[in-house]
């Protein structure tokens, strides 16, 4: 029985996806000028069964909003209800960063659901700082701007009172039929996944995904956005004050959840303390029991389980110890990373027909079938803890997903999601395949890679650099969407703002390495920006990197810059992949090549960061799919050859 509990914690439940209810806001929160209302930036659509309902928010206490009374003022919420919901007295002060539950009444206002509150503008406040910093994402700058039309002319001034719509929603008919009575607007922070948030409130991950218009293929969430959690019962303080994995998640063990300790409202701090401590003890006991029962099945001797960090710091253990350490490491993975499955060698062997050559993809990567799903299985002899640690924190559509791991006789086996269309390099360099790669497909691929790198640079904690981006490390799925793979060289870019890490150990792929790295061993996210520039050049010219360098024999951008200044469109036509000739929008192509040129700047401070690159490519992609495209084709037809 305990075994099955454990398994159910391992597996993200895969209930059929119910009708999507509200679109997730994604990264639209920072583009205050954008009037695009296709995401939920202006608020969640008023599509529920009722026009008004009880709803909940989560907020992390931050000075000056650390007490029941200041938080109730900020959200215009009832303070006695806040104190009850969080099991604290009305005069309580929370420690910083504690998650506080706030009950609100959510109502339709025009086309959107919202809860109204007001806010007194402070010195130096902007709509973005109010939405993102003060309210942590519970409102958006776009909604604030739209609902305070009088301020457009005057701008914000200190002391002014503005209307603030808070993001909330009421359950739809479908959700109510499904047993959902409340929606909680959960504030996402760093390194969080839909599955971990769902576990916190003990709701099904599939339902949370559906409630936000997300799916198992499209599950990326970003810090400082709201995620709707569908609840049957009102949330309780035990759910949000349970020990949570602090970032990075590898340093604490999220315990399997147990039923909350029962009990009515607590009036004094003593009761609260006793309750919370009791809860923790109960949770840990249940966790330890399950843990022991599970591991008795696989291992007789019990040794303290090292953390992932401690494994990393082991320099070169003796041969004999390697296996033991690896065994411990495997176990620590199974206890720490709930999303990672540990496979036995037998399972891997049967998945790959005993690692038969017919299953070999390339090098030491095999294709296998596990539980009916295709997977790529890579055999590695060496330290994989860094890659596992990183991939375990990552959750992005454009970064290859690690789903499991195995170990046998000194070799690691990493099990990844399978990308049926293989490496990008095969598609751009094989002339017979290349026909498939039209302009828009290539644009989608570069946009995908930019999105993945941007996530790696900005939304992993600490930020990471891939360090080995090239066209064989970009894989294509069934729909030719790109996924960045091979994180073996990736490393943290921590503490490198203004001051960069240096290394004497230069590794990477020839042709893609930035000048400052080759010459001085300087490591920063701009390294990936340079490699991305080379990759884009490869994609749009259809030429292999070695060929590109042979032709120019110097800094790529030294050649590119002058070409783009005068007769830019004509020159781009000369270097564009011959297979695309006549079938691409020439103005946009010039914009793309200017972007490539910027990414390839010799001086890293002249290069844009990945966020800028991603934003530019999104705009290019939007115009390519709409008007710009038709205009330039017709223009091209009449242009002299
Ligand atoms: C979104 O904007 C368009 C045009 O700006 C408008 O017609 C439409 O009603 C808006 N949709 C919502 C839900 O506000
Ligand atoms: C706050 O909630 C309590 C209990 O739910 C209720 O008795 C009280 O009247 C409410 N106060 C206000 C100002 O609405
Ligand atoms: C919230 O404020 C809007 C105006 O910003 C107003 O139209 C709406 O009626 C208010 N809702 C409630 C419940 O007071
Ligand atoms: C507002 O900004 C100015 C200049 O940027 C700074 O000197 C001042 O301390 C800021 N005030 C507050 C309250 O942050
Ligand atoms: C939003 O706030 C967080 C934390 O306060 C900060 O790290 C992030 O950069 C902010 N985003 C923007 C676009 O200002």
Automatic annotation (TrEMBL):
GO MF term set: ATP binding; protein kinase activity
Topology term for the membrane: Single-pass membrane protein
Major localization class: membrane
InterPro entries to which the protein is assigned, alphabetical: Kinase-like_dom_sf, LysM, LysM2_CERK1_LYK3_4_5, LysM3_LYK4_5, NFP_LYK_LysM1, Plant_RLK_LysM, Prot_kinase_dom, Ser-Thr/Tyr_kinase_cat_dom
Gene Ontology biological-process annotations: response to other organism
Region (Disordered): 234-261
Domain Protein kinase: 280-620
The keyword Protein biosynthesis appears for this protein: no
Superkingdom per UniProt: Eukaryota
Signal peptide: 1-20
Sequence ranges of Pro residues compositional bias: 243-261
Gene Ontology cellular-component annotations: plasma membrane
Keywords recorded for this protein, A-Z: ATP-binding, Cell membrane, Disulfide bond, Membrane, Nucleotide-binding, Signal, Transmembrane, Transmembrane helix
Transmembrane regions: 269-295
Protein known as: LysM domain receptor-like kinase 4
The organism of origin for this protein: Buddleja alternifolia
């Amino acid at each position: 029985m305990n075994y099955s509990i454990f398994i159910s914690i391992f597996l993200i439940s895969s209930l059929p996806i119910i009708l999507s209810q509200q679109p997730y806001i994604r990264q639209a929160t920072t583009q205050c000028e954008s009037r695009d209302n296709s995401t939920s930036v202006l608020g969640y659509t008023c599509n529920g069964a009722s026009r008004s309902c009880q709803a909940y928010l989560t907020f992390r206490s931050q000075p000056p909003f650390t007490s029941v009374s200041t938080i109730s003022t900020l959200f215009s919420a009832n303070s006695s209800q806040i104190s009850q919901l969080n099991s604290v007295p009305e005069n309580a002060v929370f420690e910083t960063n504690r998650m506080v539950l706030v009950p609100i009444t959510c109502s339709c206002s025009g086309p959107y659901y919202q809860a109204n509150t007001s806010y007194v503008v402070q010195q130096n406040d902007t709509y973005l700082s109010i939405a993102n910093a003060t309210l942590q994402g519970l409102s958006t700058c776009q909604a604030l701007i739209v609902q305070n039309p009088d301020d457009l002319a005057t701008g914000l001034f200190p002391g002014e009172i503005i209307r603030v719509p808070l993001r909330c929603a009421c359950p739809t008919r479908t959700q109510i039929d499904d047993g959902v009575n409340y929606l909680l607007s959960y504030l996402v922070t760093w390194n969080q996944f839909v599955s971990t948030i769902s576990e916190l409130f003990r709701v099904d991950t599939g339902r949370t995904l559906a409630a936000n218009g997300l799916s198992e293929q499209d599950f990326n969430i970003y810090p400082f956005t709201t995620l709707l959690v569908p609840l049957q019962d009102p949330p309780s303080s035990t759910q949000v004050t349970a020990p949570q994995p602090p970032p990075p998640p590898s340093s604490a063990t999220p315990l399997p959840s147990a039923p909350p300790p029962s009990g009515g409202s607590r009036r004094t701090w003593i009761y609260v303390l006793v309750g919370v401590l009791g809860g923790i003890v109960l949770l840990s006991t249940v966790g330890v029991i399950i843990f022991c029962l599970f591991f008795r099945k696989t291992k007789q001797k019990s040794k303290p389980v090292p953390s992932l960090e401690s494994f990393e710091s082991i320099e070169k253990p003796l041969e004999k110890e390697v296996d033991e350490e690896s065994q411990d490491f495997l176990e620590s993975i199974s206890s720490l990373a709930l999303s990672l499955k540990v496979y036995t060698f037998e399972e891997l062997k049967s998945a790959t027909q005993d690692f038969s050559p017919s299953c070999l993809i390339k090098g030491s990567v095999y294709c296998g079938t596990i539980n009916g799903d295709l997977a790529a299985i890579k055999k590695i002899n060496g330290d994989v803890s860094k890659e596992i640690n990183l991939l375990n924190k990552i959750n992005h559509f454009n970064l290859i997903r690690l789903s499991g791991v195995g170990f046998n006789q000194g070799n690691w086996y990493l099990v990844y999601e399978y990308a049926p269309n293989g490496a990008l390099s095969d598609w751009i360099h094989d002339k017979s395949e290349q026909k498939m790669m039209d302009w828009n497909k290539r644009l989608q691929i570069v946009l995908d890679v930019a999105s993945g790198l941007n996530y790696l640079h900005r939304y992993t904690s600490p930020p990471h650099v891939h360090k080995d981006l090239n066209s064989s490390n970009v894989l294509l799925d069934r729909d030719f969407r790109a996924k960045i793979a091979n994180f073996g060289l990736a490393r943290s870019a921590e503490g490198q703002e203004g001051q960069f890490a240096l290394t004497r150990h230069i590794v990477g792929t020839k042709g893609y390495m930035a000048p400052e790295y080759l010459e001085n061993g300087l490591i920063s996210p701009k390294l990936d920006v340079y490699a991305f520039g080379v990759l884009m050049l490869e994609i749009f010219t259809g030429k292999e990197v070695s060929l590109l360098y042979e032709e120019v024999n110097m800094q790529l951008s030294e050649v590119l810059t002058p070409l783009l200044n005068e007769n830019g469109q004509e020159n781009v036509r000369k270097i564009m992949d011959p297979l695309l000739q006549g079938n691409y929008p020439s103005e946009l192509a010039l914009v793309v090549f200017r972007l490539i040129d910027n990414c390839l700047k010799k001086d890293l401070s002249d290069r844009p960061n990945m966020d800028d690159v991603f934003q530019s490519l999104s705009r290019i992609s939007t115009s390519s799919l709409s008007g710009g495209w038709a205009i330039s084709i017709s223009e091209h037809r009449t242009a002299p050859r």
